[in-house]
Amino acid sequence: MRLVVTKRNYDAVNTRGPALFGEEIRTDSYRERLVKYIPVEALVLYVAIYGSTYALFAYQPFFSLLARWILLAGIAVTLLWLWKIEGVTDGIQLAVSAFGFVAWVFAFGVVPVAELPWYNQVAAALFLPVYVFLTPLIRGIPDRW
Questions:
Q1: Which domain holds residue 42?
Q2: pLDDT block averages, 10 residues each, the chain of length 145
Q3: How buried is 139 (Cβ within 10 angstroms: 0-12 exposed, 13-18 middle, 19+ buried)?
Q4: Is 30 left (phi over 0), alpha (psi -120 to 50) or beta?
Q5: Looking at the 3D structure of the chain, how many domains does it have?
Q6: Predicted model pTM
Q7: Any residues with CB less than 8 A from the CB of 10 and at least 6 apart, and which?
Q8: Is position 29 within any domain?
Q9: In contact, 39 and 5? CB cutoff 8 Å
Q10: Residue 26 forms part of a structural domain
Q11: Is residue 19 one of the residues assigned to a domain?
Q12: In angstroms, what CA-CA distances link 45 with 38, 41, 50?
């Protein structure tokens, strides 16, 4: 299951029913949260589509607009994939994953973001590991690492 399991949503996620008295609630570890927050499927699809489009149309005048549409489609695919395919209904996890997708794209330094006047490749590259490794702590420090 792709949904991040915390003490707050354990009863809703647990298919066996509510936790029994004295039963230890098994929530996701830091590593499990880390993996679940990274939208790998959408990133792979984005890299494949953007890379192919770049190879075919990079020198065309419409490429910048096309690249922006691919970026927006990537954000939409991230949300739809998690919601419809993976069954994630938690708004916080959806938002974290969508923002994570954007953070990864900024770190890639692709055309839609590299053309922004305030974009800084070094800052984006340094922000990504900070974001990735601190995101699992959004819901508190996990019981297990």
A1: 34-137
A2: 63 57 72 91 96 96 95 96 92 94 95 91 95 91 81
A3: buried
A4: alpha
A5: 1
A6: 0.82
A7: 19, 25, 27
A8: no
A9: no
A10: no
A11: no
A12: 13, 6, 8
